[in-house]
């Protein structure tokens, strides 16, 4: 007898693709069935048989008004499914600029569901992201002293999230300090109730127990915002309607595509280069109109059995020089468009597994492939699950945020893929 379809209780709106898979993987770890959609759901999109539906947008770095429009449209669609709670997922390093988009999107979503006290909890202790006295830390460093200060699109030079968020919204921004968080859900609820009108609360979190405390206090909120940890903690408070079967990773040759310039990704590429061939994308050649895509595809054909990599990752000094010469927007567009074309050409050549490093790159790849939905499989590293693109020709995608994973994540991912078959 077939199992009746389930109605999702949690609807997630994520501001980039790898952040979406980060949260989706952590929720799936709790036993929940998760489906991830790519882009604003189209009218007529079928009902989803899952506990949680994640809508992945590429809204982190676009104009705020566009981010708001996409997020609200996605939220309305999720609410039409019957979800009980909306979750706005952004990066654990709060990647944004003074022009948005976290504040404007949160304002719009809060208005949509009439939320009064909205929690902001980007911290993910499992990834070394913590908040104390409203300041965000990456490991033992303030955010402003970490490599994120050199992010090519959203450089993070201020660690005080009250100031960062306050520059993006007219809604009052207050602190849920660590002593209040550790006083328990009742104390948190009492503190949050002391508000006139809408208030945004930055939550101090330095351990997984703090995440759980925030989740318990916010479990009935119509809108919650944060990184992957709080979303997963909210899921863990509920019993899964049914547990999904393990997701098999489709077979086929594998390749790595890397556009992230983070220190972690550069280290992973260096490790991969020891045993596998690597093609480096020349951004200046792209700017001159040279057919770098055809060159890269020829390289992939020649090395199809060797897990080849095509990379545009480079050090911060080189990134600054490229951006100075070509402009920030143009250099980014050149790279992401090329990597998207290479991904599409690789699938046409028969590659069945693509490991992608970088949020912007992941967005370009899935858009180029025309992927609209992903099933979430086993995690390779915290926040980095294998996914399978639904369609006539299933393609396995590992969409990795630039900063995530250990040095050998690509080798680990392929070993797990082989074990899933």
TrEMBL record:
The protein's Enzyme Commission number: 2.7.1.217
Single Gene Ontology MF annotation: kinase activity
Domain (Four-carbon acid sugar kinase nucleotide binding) ranges: 255-410
Catalysed reactions, semicolon-separated: 3-dehydro-D-erythronate + ATP = 3-dehydro-4-O-phospho-D-erythronate + ADP + H(+); 3-dehydro-L-erythronate + ATP = 3-dehydro-4-O-phospho-L-erythronate + ADP + H(+)
Pfam families documented for this protein: NBD_C, SBD_N
Domain named Four-carbon acid sugar kinase N-terminal: residues: 10-234
Keywords recorded for this protein, A-Z: ATP-binding, Carbohydrate metabolism, Kinase, Nucleotide-binding, Transferase
Job description of the protein: Catalyzes the ATP-dependent phosphorylation of 3-oxo-tetronate to 3-oxo-tetronate 4-phosphate.
NCBIfam families in the cross-refs: OxoTetrKin (NF043035)
Family statement: Belongs to the four-carbon acid sugar kinase family.
Annotated protein name in UniProt: 3-oxo-tetronate kinase
């Amino acid at each position: 007898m077939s199992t009746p379809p389930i109605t999702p209780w949690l609807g997630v709106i994520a501001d980039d693709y790898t952040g979406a898979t980060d949260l989706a993987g952590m929720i799936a770890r709790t036993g929940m069935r998760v489906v991830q959609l790519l882009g604003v759901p189209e009218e007529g999109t079928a009902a989803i048989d899952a506990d949680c539906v994640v809508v992945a947008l590429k809204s982190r770095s676009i104009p705020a008004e566009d981010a708001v429009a996409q997020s609200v449209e996605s939220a309305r669609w999720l609410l039409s499914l019957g979800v009980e709670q909306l979750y706005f997922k952004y990066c654990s390093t709060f990647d944004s600029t003074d022009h948005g988009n976290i504040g404007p999107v949160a304002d719009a979503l809060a208005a949509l569901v009439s939320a009064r006290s909205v929690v902001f909890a980007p911290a993910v202790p499992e990834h070394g992201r913590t908040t104390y006295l409203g300041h965000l830390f990456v490991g033992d460093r303030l955010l402003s002293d970490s490599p994120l200060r050199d992010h090519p699109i959203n450089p993070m030079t201020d660690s005080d999230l009250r100031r960062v968020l306050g520059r993006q919204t007219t809604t009052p921004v207050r602190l849920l300090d660590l002593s209040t968080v550790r006083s328990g859900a009742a104390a948190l609820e009492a503190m949050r109730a002391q508000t006139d009108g809408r208030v945004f609360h930055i939550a101090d979190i330095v351990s997984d127990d703090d995440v759980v405390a925030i989740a318990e206090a916010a479990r009935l909120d119509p809108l919650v915002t944060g990184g992957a940890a709080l979303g997963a903690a909210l899921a863990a408070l509920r019993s899964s309607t049914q547990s999904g079967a393990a997701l098999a990773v489709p077979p086929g040759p594998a390749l790595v595509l890397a556009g992230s310039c983070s220190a972690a990704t550069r280290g992973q590429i260096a490790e991969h280069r020891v045993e596998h061939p690597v093609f480096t994308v020349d951004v200046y050649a792209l700017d001159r109109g040279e057919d770098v895509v055809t060159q890269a595809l020829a390289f992939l054909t020649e090395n199809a059995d060797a897990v080849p990599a095509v990379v545009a990752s480079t050090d911060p000094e080189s990134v600054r020089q490229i951006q100075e010469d070509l402009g920030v927007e143009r250099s980014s567009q050149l790279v992401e468009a090329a990597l998207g074309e290479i991904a599409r050409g690789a699938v046409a050549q028969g590659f069945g597994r693509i490991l992608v490093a970088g949020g912007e790159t992941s967005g370009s790849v899935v858009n180029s492939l025309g992927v609209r939905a992903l099933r979430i499989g086993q995690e390779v590293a915290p926040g980095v699950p294998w996914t399978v693109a639904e369609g006539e020709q299933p393609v396995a995608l590992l969409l990795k945020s630039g900063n995530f994973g250990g040095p050998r994540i690509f080798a680990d991912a392929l070993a797990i893929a082989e074990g899933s078959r």
